[in-house]
Amino acid sequence: MEDLPLPALFEQTRKIHADATESAVDQEVVKKGCQALHRCEDMVNNLGLFSSNETKEDISTANLKYILVPFYLAELMEKIAQEDRLQILKASQAKLKEFISFCEAMELVPKEELESYIEGAPKTVVDQRARKIARFKRQRAAESKLLEIKERKERRGRSTKAAALSTPVEAGEEEVLDDDGEEEREAWTTTISLAICKALDLLDMLKKEEEMLSAVKDRQSKDGAEFSRDGLDERAKKAEAWHRDAAVRARYTKPSPPITCATFAQDVLEGRAKASQAHDHKHQPLIFGPASLLNGSLTTERERMAAQVFQPSHRMPTMSIEEAGLKEMEIMNKWQERNVKLMEEANSSWHNDRKSKPGEDDDEDDDAAQEKARAWDDWKDDNPRGAGNKKLTPCG
């Protein structure tokens, strides 16, 4: 790879970069790609392909693609797995800044991106969101344009091939071909615009990662080397205690075999159980949410409020089915006892003697009834049925 010219070396590194971006690549391949890109960078500097007083119009189409060398190198360096991650992040950020600064000098960075890059990160969340949306739209537009250029090239290639097969090429017509220099320049300019969007996103991500790693490193240096070990040991102890308690709680959360009202009543009737044993089957209302983890031991106001979370909105039953059945049995037993007592009173000798042996008061009542009946008969004799009803008398 060391003996290859710059165009061939760039194409190989570009292929390695594409493979590393699309899928996971071996670390050796990534390191070889970084070495090749470093060599490309050295060759570009030695050949003096770019000058500080040039713009994008002054760069030839053949050399325009070498602007991407620092960007490809930064993306490959970020994928290197190394113990000192901070060093990798700083080196990758340096290459990204170099790429963005060169594109800025070549007037390739959009004006809004240039302003935000110079001023730093926007202060409000709304500005950050607007900037990300605008960058995403530019990235999508660049990808669509590259796809369109690729399809256009493929269609032109198929048309040229078909024309060559159908029409023989005569002498002197070999050089009459479509010049695609403008199209190639447009493709590389669009690729650089897409790379600028990706570089800005990657730079923001690497800055955040660097801040996080620096904060962790500073904390470890302040607390000492035993900080992480003690923290891990404490977390392991907490996890073991939690699993132990969960295993203990599991024994009490298993459902007991159901005891229905019918079976318990049958046991009471057949003498295998007593009605006084109903307290053994008292209904315990279901507990939902955190209260089930507290086992009902609400000692503080905080625990009481936490136990009310996810409680049912309706009123829970105050007794079980077994208790309701026993209550109904008790009511029926009292009703049967009352009926038996009334039947005994009805069939008693005192009730019968009272009907068969009337007293003096009964005799007086009988005489008064007879006199009343005789007076009624006399009145009916004097007043026959229908007498005095003139309206019912038929007209003469």
Automatic annotation (TrEMBL):
GO terms for cellular component: cytosol. Transmembrane segments: none annotated. GO terms for molecular function: protein phosphatase 2A binding. Residues 157-184, 344-396 are annotated as: Disordered. This is PP2A regulatory subunit TAP46. GO terms for biological process: regulation of dephosphorylation; regulation of signal transduction; TOR signaling. Pfam families: TAP42 (PF04177). Residues 369-384 have a biased composition (Basic and acidic residues). Residues 171-184 have a biased composition (Acidic residues). Belongs to the IGBP1/TAP42 family. It comes from the Eukaryota.
